[in-house]
Every structure is written in C-alpha cells, then in structure tokens.
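#help-structures
NK: newbie question, is this the right format to request a structure? protein is GmrSD restriction endonucleases C-terminal domain-containing protein
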Amino acid sequence: MKVRMWLPLVVVVAIAALVVVWRSGEVAPSKANPGTDPGVARQQLAELAVKPRGTLNGYSREKYPHWDTVEGACNTREEVLKRAGTNVVVGKDCAPTSGTWVSPYDGATWTSPSDVDIDHMVPLAQSWVSGASAWTQAQREAFANDLERPQLWAVTDNVNQSKSDKAPDEWKPPLESFWCTYATDWIAVKHYYQLSVTTAEQAALNDMLNHC
C-alpha cells in the first residue's frame, strides 16, 4: 500500500526532472552547442592540415548567403536566438521581441535582441583563407547557416565586433572559463569542414585546450 502511495509522487518528480532537462537543453548556449570532448578535439586538431593563412583575394560576405529560411517564417538567425535564450517571445514573423540571453564570450546578460549578435564560431573570412575559397557557393551557404555543428552563437554585439574575422591566435573570448569550449568548438567546425590551421593558430588552440 505504501509503495502504491509513493508511485504517483515518483512519476511526477521524474516527469518534472525530464522537463527541466529538456528546457535547459533548449535554452542554454552551452547546451545548444555542446563542446567536443577535449581529448577528441586534440585528436581532431592533430588531423588538420597546417598551412600558412591564405589571402582574402576574391572574398565577400555575399559569397556566403546566410540567415536562410529554415522553418516556416523562421530564419537561421532567429532559430539561434530562440534556442540560446530563455523566455523568448517571438512575433508572427518569427523575429524575437523579448527574452534573456547570456553571452558565453563575456558572461553578459541581455534582454533586447538588438544587443545580441549571431557569431560564426569560425568566421566566414577565416574559412575563406583556410580552404573555403575553393568551395562552391552552395557549400559556403551551408557553412554560414550550420545549425548542427557548434558554429553559431548568440553573443554580445560589441564583443562579436571585437572578434571580427580573427583566429584564436589573434583573439580569445574575454571570459577565460569559456576558452576550453571555444577551442573544442573551433576545432570541431574546422575538422568537419576540413579547413586548415596555421602553426600559430594550432599553438593557440592547444593552449586553450589546457584550460579544459
């Protein structure tokens, strides 16, 4: 009899726990784009071609069509804002109108979508100088809108601007506790797309992996 009395309570608690896990998986930036295991990242880094950085000759952002429509009226940018924020409210056009976003690069909290940029973990120009200049435009479009790899992050706008097109040997997130995830995710993206790294970039990534 006592077992029967406790069973409903256990079921309720279990369901509540599952809801919490699901919600955190949807909204937390680190959950939306989980980092690669550091050991795997080191192996992937060792497998990347090491070459001097190429030139930006012929590069333009127009060669990377981005913010594609992905579902209904929602585009890639809006999907990232929805999954990276909490209590996100969207309009009929799918554009978020309010919510809360915590930038993993600097730990800052924002409540206005206009204060948040969508950063390409590996910047478009960085991909160009490490192999993407030889891709088709369709391949570059897939890269610029990749919601599966840890490529798209919602971050503080001026921090994203300070990063610009820089590689890890030129720029690191202000929040040092994020360096491990930044390195594993940078490597995961470059490894998937078979983009090269420079000697300085490789050394910087190895140093950041030491923070894991």
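mod (FA): yep, format's fine, and the tokens are attached above. Residues 2-209 form one domain.
NK: thank you!
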